Amino acid sequence: MRSLEDIRDEYEFLDGDERYRLLIELGRELDAMPEALKTEATKVRGCSASVWVYPTPRDDGRLHFLADSNAAITKGIVALVLAAVQDRPAAEVAATDIAGALEPFDLKNQLSSNRTQGVPNMIALIRETAARLAT
């Protein structure tokens, strides 16, 4: 997965439709999430599209998230969120200001409100899960 900084550098260079294409591309780059993990327990509430996020703890204490969405741009937003925390120690993920890390992307002004309405819930789910696994 690309670093959030690399994505931001590319994103800032693009405009309008090109930014949408980048988000779609990011979504395609996510690791495949097995259908069996797409359950009510892994579903993010409050998203206009269906979004699932599943943490896979590593032996070294790092978290690798599997995620998917049934909408291409939403899946790209999911990938953007994960780029802020992917493969980092659980305690670090729990302490990360993910919303702050995403501010340079100005998603609220770049995308429709129903595309971004579930982002706070996704961030909360990721941070709460990480905090639970860090203990």
What does this structure look like?
This protein has 135 residues and is an alpha+beta fold. The chain has one domain: Sufe protein. Chain: A (Alpha-Beta Complex), CATH 3.90.1010.10. It is 52% helix and 13% strand. It has 8 helices and 3 strands; from the N terminus they run ααββαβααααα. A 3-stranded antiparallel β-sheet has the order 1-2-3. Helix 2 packs across helix 3. The longest helix has 16 residues. The two termini are 26 Å apart.
Using brief descriptors, characterize the structure shown:
alpha+beta, 3-stranded antiparallel sheet, 52% helix, 13% strand, Sufe protein. Chain: A, 135 residues, 8 helices
**What is the CA-atom radius of gyration, in angstroms?**
14 Å
User: What's the number of extended β-strand segments?
Assistant: 3
Strand-and-helix sequence, N→C?
HHEEHEHHHHH
> What general form does the structure show?
globular
Distance between the termini: 26 Å
Biggest sheet, strands in spatial order? 1-2-3
Please, how many helices? Answer: 8
Low-confidence stretches: none
The secondary-structure class comes to alpha+beta
* Major sheet details: 3 strands, antiparallel
CATH top level? Alpha Beta
Pfam family, one: SufE
Family: Belongs to the SufE family.
Protein name: SufE family protein
Domain Fe-S metabolism associated: 14-128
Quick recap:
It holds the Pfam family SufE. This protein has 135 residues and is of the alpha+beta class.
